[in-house]
Amino acid sequence: MSDKVMLYTHPMSRGSIVRWMLEEIGQPYDTEILTYYGTMKEPAYLAINPMGKVPAIKHRDVVVTECGAIIAYLADAFPDAGLAPAVTDPKRGIYYRWLFFSAGCIDPAATNKSMGFVVPDDKLAMSGYGSVDNVIDTLDGWFSKNDFVLGDTFSAADIYVGAQINWLTEFKVLEKRPSFEAYVARILQRPSAARAKEIDDKIIAERPELIPPGMMPESA
User: Fold this and answer.
1) What is the pLDDT of residues 179-216, one digit of tens each?
2) Which of 81, 139, 187, 216 is least buried, going by the fewest C-beta atoms within 10 A?
3) Residue 155 region, left (φ>0) first, then alpha (ψ -120 to 50), else beta?
4) Where does the chain have alpha helices with state H?
């Protein structure tokens, strides 16, 4: 059974987050580039991910989808990279908190805002993330006091949380705040982040047909 990871992605998708994670781990991996409205929706890939979305990975015959799950899985599958606290470390709780906050609060809040949907005041109790302002203030409160998700130590959670903050502030889905700018600057200094971006940028440059008309990055 091969220990090599297969990454299913598109260079303008959330798959860029997983590529960064794979570059950070430093293990060899293969990549299959899929197209929006094309190979993502064909039977071969739907057998991998019935949602017809990227990213997804396959490792040791196990398929993992959803960015947060993939990030957590890879950190545990390759522990020598030191990207997650030990299961017995209390900081594991902080690590889980922000991985799930990223998936359960940042992503849906940003998606709703970009589509013009605002949770009515009388429905806030029904919203898992409350309001966009709740999400922004919570992130700002944490990163105003901490360099990274775990305080002073970089982890896999920073790849997920940081990539989302970087993209969402760049495209003005979330407002820029000093804590966000400082945090993003710290994590983007990592060589793995630069390598991942260079790989995806090269694919886009060499294969412009991959870009659907009017599409913004990270919309998968």
Assistant:
1) 999 999 999 999 999 999 999 999 999 999 898 766 54
2) 216
3) beta
4) 15-25, 43-46, 67-77, 91-101, 107-114, 132-143, 156-170, 178-187, 191-206
Q: Are 5 and 59 in contact (CB under 8 A)?
A: yes
Q: Which helix (H) or strand (E) holds 59?
A: strand 56-59
| Cβ neighbours for 164, distance < 8 A, ≥ 6 positions apart | 17, 102, 106, 107, 110
* Total-model pTM: 0.93
137 contacts 2 by C-beta, under 8 angstroms: no
* Structure tokens belonging to residue 37: 């409205």
Q: Which two tokens stand for residue 174?
A: 């979330």
Map tokens 């105003």 to a residue: 144
42-to-16, 26, 67 alpha-carbon distances in Å = 21, 31, 21
Task: Identify whether the C-beta of residue 39 lies closer than 8 Å to the C-beta of residue 181.
Answer: no
